[in-house]
Amino acid sequence: MKKKISIAIDGPSAAGKSTIAKMVAKKENFIYIDTGAMYRSVAFYCIKNHIDLNDEQAVEQAISNIQIRLTADNKVYLNDEDVSLQIRTDEVSLGASCVSKYQAVRTFLVDEQRKMAETGNVILDGRDIGTVVLPHADLKIYQIASVETRAKRRYKERGLEADLETIKKEIEQRDYQDMHRAISPLKKADDAIELDTSNMTLEEVVDQVLTLINKTREE
Ligand code: DC
Fold this sequence. Notes:
5-stranded parallel beta sheet; 3-stranded antiparallel beta sheet; 8 strands; 50% helix; alpha/beta; 9 helices; binds 2'-deoxycytidine-5'-monophosphate
């Protein structure tokens, strides 16, 4: 039987982490855990309930009313309501980046993530997986791409009504917030392998990750 392993993929916003993680999970029959969706769910709950995201105490109090469930078909449930699409708006993206700087939010979600990862054969993507959530992950990848590439990818996904410069600014703002927060800022773990996907196709990135998984299994 193949050894059970855990994989951490970290990196900045819109670097394609979740797309790659989902594809790899499908090919290798791994459980995929989208940790960003969990921060998004907290932000969405607060926005919906008119809780000021800048009020740390109010956000902290809200946590006790929040239950998040990720399903095998990549749906996100917040207190049993399917919020998979509603958590993908720009407002929620920036909101998630905001609430993710609070210790209470991180403690709550990191705990949940570790429990979900206990079974092994898991792939988690986020900002602090290799550094905090699973410091002993079998394979750590730090996936990056230039701001230009990331903005262009998002622009293509969004279609006609999108504005490339606005998307670029939003990405830069989130990069800054995620890299400069005091608690668990986005950074490459010392033992992570950096993968710059700026000039790679999706298939090339997936192939590269599969090669790394095979190598990890041989170790
Ligand atoms: O991966 P994403 O864009 O869905 O994440 C949304 C925000 O959540 C991101 O800007 C920072 C935060 N986040 C985090 O702090 N730690 C994680 N492990 C995942 C996401």
